[in-house]
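> run fold Berberine/berberine-like domain-containing protein
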Amino acid sequence: MDKLDENLFIRLMLHSSKGENGQKTGKATLVALFLGPVEKVMDIMNQNIPSLKLQKQECFEMSWIQSVLFWANFPSGTAPEALLSRQMASTPYLKRKSDYVREPISREGVEAIWKALMDVEEVGLTWNPYGGRMSEISETATPFPHRAGVKFKIQYSSNWKEAGDTEAEEEIALSRKLYEAMTPFVSKNPREAFLNYRDIDIGSSRTWSLEEGRVYGERYFKGNFERLVNVKTKVDPQNFFRNEQSIPTR
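> ok
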């Protein structure tokens, strides 16, 4: 996907569930955005991924602002003014983790991932392809380093509704189990992570020492971490602005 038309974004969502007879099944869902007419995206898909058998009736032409509503999960026909609402609908409780993939995953690897998904049941995987403009910007140009060479990013998602520790601990444990099972297929040294899916599992600071910060900092920022430490030391030497995964000072 990272090598297809730069105007095409395709998201893959994987999850497992139990049928009426209790049998576990896996499901893969694809949702895409193409900047262009239906005929063009049909040509691209039929040439590159004919096995999907994309049908024209599965494509919907819309304006850019309508696509924003679509990705925000508003019902079809919602007026753009709905975006001005400050009310946010969200799951009461959730856990998110992330990974980056730089090497192709073999068929055997995909089968192992399906097995792992069946084992955890409740946790879903969302794969977002990179490439395109993302790869054209140097990883040192901005703090965000996950650029050339990244095939896609993975989000691990687990949601629950009940307050209290019991369900939370169960859901978080399942997320960690799937994350561990994915180790052979993702980036290494460091195992890269996406800053916006804050994940305390990959490290946190209690004393805001450079050693503590480097544990998670290099996974979020790779080689840019040291430069961020230099900036932090100059503009906030007293470390007034801090959190569990903030940039430390020297």
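The first strand starts at residue 8 and ends at 18.
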